[in-house]
Amino acid sequence: MAQIREISREEMLKQSEIMRALSEKNAALDAPPLAFVDTYGCQQNESDSEKIRGMLINMGYEFTKDDNSADLIVINTCAVREHAEMRVLGNVGALVHTKKAKPDQKIALCGCMVQQEHVVEKIKKSFPQVDLVFGPHELYRFPELIDRLGKSNKRIFEIRKTDGERVEGLPVYRQDSVKAWLSVMYGCNNFCSYCIVPYVRGRERSREPELVLKEARELLSKGYKDITLLGQNVNSYGKDLGGKTDFSELLMELDRLPGEFVIRFMTSHPKDANLKLFRTMADCSKVENHIHLPFQAGNNRILRAMNRGYTKESYLSLIDLARSLMPDISITSDVIVGFPGETDEEFEDTFDVVNRVRFDMLFTFLYSRRKGTPAEKLHDPFTKEEKQCRFDRLIKLQNKISAEKQSSHVGRIERVLIDGETTQKNRREKHNLTSRTSEGRLVLLNGPASLIGRFLDVRITGFTTWSLYGETI
Q1: Mean of the pLDDT values across residues 15-34?
Q2: Domain around 254
Q3: What percent of the chain has pLDDT over 70?
Q4: Domain of 27: which CATH number?
Q5: Gyration radius of the chain's alpha carbons
């Protein structure tokens, strides 16, 4: 049984007092110090960065997107794939120049990547410009670490091995006014053989349902219309709460809250998806008609080697069950191509799953070897080129399916939540607003910014593989 420590009220008050003292100190400066927070990785990292920004505001910082002018740079890192690590290290290397031009600048690295010992050693030896390194378990101590950094010329490395802790009461600064992340749990107990997350995020820790509901009410009172529940495996929520509640019951409680809003959630694990969850989704009017259900591979031997806890057949049965209760449900998924030892014949089972399920969208990745995971030691006779051929075949199939799914919406009337503005490119194409359907589909529209935050009926007029185009009615 994992030992999950509760962070005491006294400890949180200590961090609050440090923030207050730093805020007074920074208020006495000619100008407030500037912080740049850069985030890599998943939605949970984005949520953590919102807490970092909240603490920075309480310490008297303002924000910039220019790393040259920043007094403090905080890079929140990801460890899921090698590509993400290489991007982070490349960008950190480039900060040599900003620090040379601004010697008092402080650079901090945090997040999953730096919870790994080999990464910490690399930073110590090869990246002297980095002043502060702290893992996910030290997030609540960020004010204390910044205070120590300001009082010492020594580099600080705070990486603690722990099963994880429950932390409540951190300030949050959300940059979006319509969409909000709401973490319901942290950590993971699954230990998929290819994944580093359980080793860097710790064991599953569910938040008390009363605290989740309280935060949801606060978000609604501030005008948020789109709430996404987060967890490494969100539908295992409540397993560590002694039978008090489960994820389906939490969804029902959130659905009863008054107001017009939508509830989304990610990410789900097939071994914890069941009839109760799908019935709850079907019965709840505010829960979106979409589930992200990663299958990762279609071959049973590979699934066993991945330690996924289900079979191809049981996964397909889940899809059939979900669609029997919600015929129009949007289903998206993740798949890994080229797991060590996967043969061409075994890959055909993955190809078959995609062909049979016809996912609305598929996030496809080439296997990335992660140091410290069981899969790291597996023999792999296949070349990157061979894996790339399989990857390209799968992408071609999924693009065809996605286009067919998207085109079927043209001419329909859809209820959408207008949630923001588009990129400059889409504005040139006369689509300046983004919105989402109840199935989570992206719809680009044209209209005044005053529509942001409103639910409207739109007619779908066109599509691409990844988005729909519409016009308001």
Answers
A1: 97
A2: 169-407
A3: 98
A4: 3.40.50.12160
A5: 23
Residues 233-288 pLDDT 10s: 999 999 999 889 999 999 999 999 999 999 999 999 999 999 999 999 999 999 99
HEC secondary structure over the chain = CCCCEECCHHHHHHHHHHHHHHHHHHHCCCCCCEEEEEECCCHHHHHHHHHHHHHHHHCCCEECCCCCCCCEEEEEECCCCHHHHHHHHHHHHHHHHHHHHCCCCEEEEEEHHHHCHHHHHHHHHHCCCCCEEECHHHHHHHHHHHHHHHHCCCCEEECCCCCCEECCCCCCCCCCCCEEEEECEECCCCCCCCCCHHHHHCCCEECCHHHHHHHHHHHHHCCCCEEEEECCCHHHCCCCCCCCCCHHHHHHHHHCCCCCCEEEEECCCHHHCCHHHHHHHHHCCCECCEEECCCECCCHHHHHHHCCCCCHHHHHHHHHHHHHHCCCCEEEEEEEECCCCCCHHHHHHHHHHHHHHCCCEEEEEECCCCCCCHHHHCCCCCCHHHHHHHHHHHHHHHHHHHHHHHHCCCCCEEEEEEEEECCHHHHHCCCCEEEEECCCCEEEECCCHHHCCCEEEEEEEEECCCCEEEEEC
Q: How many domains does the chain have?
A: 3
Looking at residue 153, its pLDDT comes to 83
Last residue within a domain, chosen from 165, 184, 217 = 165
Residue 424, pLDDT score: 64
In this prediction, residue 84 has a pLDDT band, given cuts at 50, 70 and 90, of confident
Which pLDDT does position 426 carry in this prediction? 56
* 56 and 100 inside one domain: yes
Q: Are residues 92 and 141 in the same domain?
A: yes
* Together in a domain, 214 and 116: no
44, 118: one domain: yes
Contacts of 122 (CB under 8 A, 6+ apart): 89
pLDDT digits (tens, 9 = 90+) for 367-392: 999 999 999 999 999 999 999 999 99
Residues 444, 399: one domain? no
Instruction: Collapse the DSSP code of 63 into the 3-class scheme (helix H, G, I; strand E, B; otherwise coil) and give the result.
Output: strand
Is residue 248 domain-shared with residue 392, that is, in the same domain? Answer: yes
**Which of 382, 407, 432 is the endpoint of a domain?**
407
CATH code of residue 425:
2.40.50.140
CATH number at residue 231: 3.80.30.20
Per-residue model confidence (pLDDT) at position 351: 98
Residue 248 and residue 348 in one domain = yes
Residues 231 and 258 in one domain: yes
d(CA 239, CA 243): 7
